[in-house]
Specification:
There is one protein chain. The chain is an alpha+beta fold. It folds into two domains: 1-30; 31-124, Lipocalin (Beta Barrel), CATH 2.40.128. Helix content is 30%, strand content 46%. The termini are far apart. Residues 2-28 have low confidence and may be disordered.
Length: 125
């Protein structure tokens, strides 16, 4: 009888530890972070960040910051050039900028969003 109680207590402790590892693993997974521009698609034409940099350099311009920052508190910033910065709010799968929602998906380290025929792909920094 005593062995059964000890075995039950050990089993309960192992299960509690297992559950805490599972819950901790789920908590750590978040879309929050900085994502740098990876590619842009407009009118069916896709340009990678390297092609965009070449385009800017060809015009004698420095390539501007282009990134999406998602903060853990649901706020963030979308920067698409020196003069184009927007404060955003976000929740998993949706970014809200200037009162408009844009859905996004994440595949590995890439975040993609489409709006009005334009597609932006960001890579997690």
């Amino acid at each position: 009888m005593r062995k059964l109680r000890i075995l039950s207590a050990v089993l309960a402790m192992v299960m509690a530890i297992t559950v805490s590892f599972v819950l901790t693993g789920c908590q750590g997974k978040s879309d929050a972070g900085r994502y740098d521009v990876y590619s842009m698609t407009e009118n069916g034409e896709t340009r990678t960040v390297d092609q965009l940099k070449e385009l800017y350099e060809g015009m004698g311009l420095d390539f501007p910051d282009m990134y999406l920052q998602l903060n853990a508190d649901g706020t963030g910033e979308l920067v698409l050039g020196d003069d184009d910065s927007n404060k955003v709010e976000w929740k998993p799968g949706v970014i809200i900028a200037n009162g408009e929602e844009a859905k996004y998906t994440i595949d590995g380290d890439k975040l993609s969003m489409e709006k009005d025929g334009k597609k932006l792909v960001f890579k997690k920094a």
